[in-house]
Amino acid sequence: MIKQTIASILLVFGMVSANAFSCKANDNWGGLDKREHAFIGFVAGTLGTLGAKTQWGGLAAVSVMAAGKEMIDATGRGTCSFQDFAVTVAGGVIGSAYGNLLIIPEPKGVSLVYIKELK
After folding, report:
1. Residue 10's pLDDT band (cuts 50, 70, 90)
2. What is the pTM of this model?
C-alpha cells in the first residue's frame, strides 16, 4: 500500500506541475483561505483513513482531492495555488494520522473512540 500511495502522490504532483504556468507560487501563506484548506484537508484525510482503513489510504485520498481542486482552479474557475495544495495536504497528513480516532458527542460530554483493525 505504501508504494501505491507514494506513486499516487507523485502522479498528483506531476498533474499539478503540468498546470504550473497558471498556478501562483507566491500566494500568501496566511489568512482565512489557508485555514479553510487545512480544515478541508484534515476532514478529507480523516474520512479517507476511515474509508481505506489505513493512514496511507487517507493521505492518498487527500492528495488526489487537493490536486484535483487546484487543477480545476487552473482552468480559470478559481486561483490555482501551490500553497493551497501544500496546506490542504498538510491538513490531510494530520487528519490521516488521527483518522482512527472518533469524537462522539454525548449528553454529558464526549466519548473518544480509537478504532484499530487487528489482523
Report:
1. low
2. 0.71
What local confidence, expressed as pLDDT, does residue 61 receive? 86
Q: What is the pLDDT of residue 72?
A: 85
How far from 74 is each of 17, 18, 24, 26, 98, CA to CA, in Å? 11, 10, 10, 15, 31
Residue 83 vs residues 34, 65, 97, 109: alpha-carbon distances, Å: 8, 15, 21, 37
User: What SS3 string covers the chain?
Assistant: CHHHHHHHHHHHHHHHHHCHHHCECCCCCCCHHHHHHHHHHHHHHHHHHHHHCCHHHHHHHHHHHHHHHHHHHHHHHCCCEHHHHHHHHHHHHHHHHCCCEEEEEECCEEEEEECCCCC
Yes or no: say if 91 and 42 are a contact pair by the CB < 8 Å rule.
Answer: yes
